[in-house]
Amino acid sequence: MKELRNLFDIVIVGGGPAGLSAALVLGRSKRKVMLIDDNKPRHNVTYESHGYLTRDGITPHEFKNISRNELAKYKHVELMNEQVVHVEKKEKHFETITKNGVKLYSLKILFATGVTDHLPHIDGLKEIYGRSAFPCPYCDGWEFRDQPLAVIGNSDRIFEYTRSVQNWSSNLVLFTNGSANLNMEQKKNLVQHQITIIENKIKHLNSENGKLQSFQLENGKLILRTAAFIEGIKETQSCKIPEKLGCRIDENDAYITKQNGLTDVSGLYIIGDAKNLFSGLIKSASEGYCAGVSINSEIIEENW
Ligand SMILES: Cc1cc2nc3c(=O)[nH]c(=O)nc-3n(C[C@H](O)[C@H](O)[C@H](O)COP(=O)(O)OP(=O)(O)OC[C@H]3O[C@@H](n4cnc5c(N)ncnc54)[C@H](O)[C@@H]3O)c2cc1C
Predict the structure, then answer these.
(1) Does a structural domain hold residue 2?
(2) pLDDT tens-place string over residues 12-40
(3) Residues 95-151: pLDDT tens digits?
(4) Residue 26 domain-assigned?
(5) In a domain? residue 1
(6) Beta carbon of 150 within 6 Å of any ligand 1 atom
(7) What is the pLDDT of residue 202?
(8) How many domains are there within the chain?
(9) For ligand 1, atom 37, which residue shows the shortest CA distance?
(10) Most buried of 76, 109, 116, 272 (most Cβ within 10 A)?
(11) Has residue 5 got a pLDDT over 90?
(12) How far is the CA of 188 from the centre of ligand 1 (A)?
């Protein structure tokens, strides 16, 4: 192993909150770390992120900058702005190859590569996603509290989702964009809670500078709303390399892991949205810390 150039204790693929946090704890454990990130974090579409204690309202850009500055004092933690395209598991190490052909070797590998959102096909939705249309009311409900809100969605979870958004505003319209996937009792229940259900097809969402203004329906009606919460966004893995290496994936396209992100492939860990689909920043960072400790403990034990 000693003869390998570019040998790291650990390569971290993905530099969102999960990967950055793992890099910090591993750096502080004297590990030689390479973090490789192609800078497409999921919350890049937002103007600010909420709910991370001490960082409530931070921009995604600022979050990354502060984290990278903190890592800079650990000289044995290196960062590379690149895309990982291939990883192979050899007998005692992993071989990682980037898009530009850089080859690196590591004893362990951690994937914190997140997921990609696929929005429902509604004209005008993409323009407001992350500005006035969001997946999670806990992340962005407060900023739009008590305003005329919308829920867009029609999956099996639509009843529970709509009920939770109602916590932030009782002035709520549910747009199912077609025949509602609700039984009579659920419909009655929502109406009893002053929630209007609109099953007509949406023609277009009107907005200005990312701010939702109204729903234009195919029947010609215009419904004024200031923000929307979207249920049932399809998430897919941003990186399929762990699957190719033998990691299991569930029916919702989330990686299956054991404690602290360890997978069935020895030495390979997966954390953050890649395993939870929606973790939020603080849970992703927390998983980074736990996986970092676990990886370091594994190396200590192996070297003992
Ligand atoms: C609109 C919206 C608003 C949100 N608002 C909030 C909020 O207010 N508060 C909150 O707590 N959470 C919020 N979230 C959720 C939060 O963004 C995610 O849960 C969190 O970013 C997950 O962190 P992660 O580190 O797992 O993944 P990510 O942050 O997505 O980071 C993954 C990183 O891996 C990189 N990557 C992927 N594949 C490769 C590869 N092959 N090679 C190199 N790099 C790769 C990506 O470029 C990316 O930088 C929001 C999400 C969305 C969509």
Answers:
(1) no
(2) 999 999 999 999 999 999 999 999 999 99
(3) 999 999 999 999 999 999 999 999 999 999 999 999 999 999 999 999 999 999 999
(4) yes
(5) no
(6) no
(7) 98
(8) 2
(9) 113
(10) 272
(11) no
(12) 37
What domain range includes position 157?
A: 120-230
Residues 6+ apart with CB under 8 A from 90: none
Confidence band of 4 (pLDDT split at 50, 70, 90): low
Show contacts of 190-199: CB within 8 Å, 24+ apart. Answer: 190/159, 190/162, 190/163, 193/163, 193/166, 194/170, 195/162, 195/166, 196/172, 197/173, 198/173, 198/174, 198/223
Q: What is the 3 state secondary structure string of 76-145?
A: CEEEEECCEEEEEECCCCEEEEECCCCEEEEEEEEECCCEEEECCCCCCHHHHECCCEECCHHHHCHHHC
Please check the confidence at residue 210 and state whether its pLDDT lies above 80: yes
Question: Atom of ligand 1 at shortest distance to CA of 282?
Answer: 11
Q: Is residue 64's pLDDT more than 90?
A: yes
Write the residue with the smallest CA distance to atom 22 of ligand 1. 273
pLDDT of res. 44? 86
Residue nearest to atom 17 of ligand 1 (CA): 43
pLDDT at 94: 98
Within 13 Å of residue 19, how many CA atoms lie on the same side as its CB?
30
Whether residue 107 is found in the same domain as residue 195:
no
Tell me the C-alpha distance between 263 and 267, whole Å: 8
Question: Do 102 and 85 fall into the same domain?
Answer: yes
Q: Is 239 in the pocket of ligand 1 (CB under 6 A)?
A: yes
Does 105 lie in the same domain as 153? no
CATH number at residue 239: 3.50.50.60
Q: Is the pLDDT of residue 41 over 90?
A: no
299 & 198 share domain: no
Question: Is the Cβ atom of 134 under 6 angstroms away from ligand 1?
Answer: yes
**43 Cα to the center of ligand 1, angstroms:** 5
* Same domain for 219 and 127: yes
pLDDT of 2 above 80: no
Domain boundary among 200, 230, 260: 230
Are 12 and 106 contained in the same domain?
Answer: yes
